[in-house]
Design goal:
Length: 324
Amino acid sequence: MRPKRTRAVFQLKVTLRDIEPPIWRRIQLFEDTKLPQLHRILQLLFNWEDYHLHSFVVGRRVYSVPHEDDAFTERKVIDEKRVPLNRIVDRVGATFEYAYDFGDGWQHEIMLEAILLPDPEAFYPRCIAGARNGPPEDVGGPGGYADYIEALADPAHGEHENLLAWRGPFDPEAFSLDEINASLRKMFSRRTASKRAVASAKVGADLDHLTRFMLAALRGASMPEVPKQRISPGTTLPLEITDRERELILKQSLAPDELTTKLRVVPPHGAPCVVRYTLDDLDDLAGYIAFESNHAKDRKVRKEWQAIYEKIAALLESYTDGDQ
C-alpha cells in the first residue's frame, strides 16, 4: 500500500491593489483548497459581503462561476467549482488575481510566498499577519474609498454626516488576527464536521432507499431494470420543488452557496419552482438533504426532507453522464 501523501500548506500574501497605505493579509491553507473555498476565505479576510460577482485571473485564464453573460466576454470563463489552488499556482513567487465587484473594480494580488509542511497543532486555513480594515461594500472602488476615508475624518466635510448615516463609524486601521481566525475556525470547523456527517448520512439514506426496493421485491412487486438515459457531462436537469421545500433548503440546510444560490430567485406567483442542476450538483445536494432528514427530530419535517431526497434520487436513478 502506498503511503498517504502529505498535503502541503501554501502561504499566500493577498494585497488589495491601488490602496495606500496597503491593505493586506498573509494566510496559510492546504494546497488542494478548491477555488470556491478560497473565494469564501478572501471574502471573510477583507470583510466583503459576497454581494457581487468575482473571478480568479491566472494569465489569460479566468476561473469563476459560469454565467450566461460570459458569451460576450473576450476570454473563456472556466468553471471554478472543482479547481484546486495547486492547479493554478505551484511555484513560489508566482502571482494571480482575485477580482471582486466588477463595478467597483476591487483587485487583489495574490502571491505564493512559501510551500510548507503542515503544523499538526495548527488549524487551517489561518491568517498569520495583515494590516488595516477592509473597505465597505459599494464604496466606489479605490478612488471612492479614498474619498470616503477623507470625508469620515473631517467633521466639516459636506458628506461627513451622510456617510456616517450610511455605514456608521468606520476605523480604517482596525485589524484583529484573533477575530479573523475565530471566524475561519467557525466557518471551516462546521463545514468539516458537516461533510463527515453528510457522507455518513448519505450512505444511510442510500441504504434506506435500497431497503425499500428490497422489501418491495420480497412482497412480490416487480422490479424491471430500466436503463438510465445518457446525457452529456454538464447537462442540467430540472428539479421541481415546492415553496416550502425551497425554504427548508435555504434556511435549514448546511448546503453551501454554490448549491443554493439558484434557489434564491423567487418564481412568479403561482408558478412552480424549477431549478436546474447537473448530476454532480444533484448528488452533492442529496447528501445535505439526507443529513437533514436523518437528524430531523420532528417527524413531519423528516418526511418533508425525505420527499425532497426522493425527488433528487429519482433524477439520479434516471440519468447518467458517464459509463453505466
